[in-house]
## 1
Amino acid sequence: MYAIISIIGFILSRFLAARRHPGLLAERAHFTQHENTESWDKILGPLVGLGGGLILLIAGLDALLDWSSIFNLILKIVSLLIIVAGYSLSAYALIENRFFSGVVRLQQDRGHYVVSSGPYHWIRHPGYAGGLLTYIAVPVFLDAAWAFLPAVFLVITLVIRTKLEDKTLQDRLAGYSDYAKQVRYRLLPGVW
């Protein structure tokens, strides 16, 4: 079920994003080739990818070696709803933001400007927020308590990446500081 949700969510979000912003998938596909990627993101970006893979690897090992107890049905249903909500929020951010790159960089070559519509009206980094929801819920849904270790690693990494990306945008993207004054929260409304 998790694989089906992930695959369908990936395909559908990319299809809708490509229809709305034809250049976006090319931007995302060539993320390793951009020369103006922020230096710190050359470390954090791959760590995010590694963390996502580790959650699934640890979950697989957990199931194979029977490390964890099975979570109850109610928790699994709640975690499934959180996973779907996380994927939906991230997909909405991807579809809404034509500058939703795989790396942190100012996209002057693509006419980069502040996006404040859709989920960006409530929080400044909804793609990361959706990812955080998903990463935290996956260990419960897959009955893999040990997968919380890479999930916590990912949360820490994404919080650091969000802070650095937000500072970069405030310092270097015209209009972002004003946007940040209007939309106060980076990841979690009412908290941060």
## 2
Amino acid sequence: MMAAPTFVKQLNTQIGNEFGAHQQYLSIATYYDSLTMPQMAALFYNQALEERTHAMMMVQYLLDASAEVKIPGVEAPTCEFSDVVQPVQLALDQERQVTEQISELTRIARQESDFASDQFMQWFIKEQVEEVAKMSDLLAVVTRSKDDWESIEDWVAREEAGEGDDPTAPPAAGA
């Protein structure tokens, strides 16, 4: 299997985007940890791991496609926030941006008649629908309860319980 060169180049870029998202979520998690909001911290530590896993899924795909893997560097994440709402708004904006990036990768695969890469991207499209919805809901709750941190923590504890691994997810390198 040979992935289209333009797709490979853009997927390598996306690996960097995913690692950048990983670092941003770590920064957000530590912010909430510093406020003694363990539920919000755990949510974002888990999100960070998810983003890292997404990058490693992309690495594995490139390896399986006998394509060159180039791990790009990333910009430093935002580390200072004015209130408990700002990090969630940043996370939602980031997920919307990733959705656009995933759509562009899918467009490239289709334009290049790279059907395997197109099929690989389908899981990420589904994942982005879930991620944008999750962050939209969280933003509504955090905005509504910005002065009641315990209410935010209770909501997250209730809503985040029971999320398991997705058996349809692509394999991740090193897993």
## 3
Amino acid sequence: MTNCPDPDNLGRMVREISAGGVVVRRSGAAWEVAIIEPRKEPSTTDTKGKRKSQKVTLALPKGLVDPGEKPDQTALREVFEETGVKAVLMSKLIDIKYVYVRSWGDGERVFKIVSFYLFKYDSGEIDNIESEMRLEVNRAFWTPLDEASRKLAYRGERDAVRRAMEFLENHPEV
């Protein structure tokens, strides 16, 4: 992934707009965050016929903004679909912009913007998701917020978690 898109090439690239959530809840004196393990393609084999091991990827719930939907609504929908929990919007955290090359289909370069929002847990049971979502999400679980930035696979998502921590430190009334 390239983190600094070349403005001259953006007009020729496909664009994707996504949104996601950093959902937090209190657990004693500490905060926890809801994260997911996205389902991966089946493992492949190497040239000797041995299965290649796949590293577990952990991420925040997120997805494409549907037509007519606002990014914060998308984030709330994705949080529920991918984790099984309902949450209340607290604040916008960050817009992450990057370029990637599709590994499927046309192999086209895509300029992507992902907006992350901070949510406070309201209700629901983590990992209680619809069976059709199991095609996308292997599992969802709570993890300590102060450990999440070491566990998440993507730098932009680690940045979103750090911003969430700063928000919570600056708003003790939450």
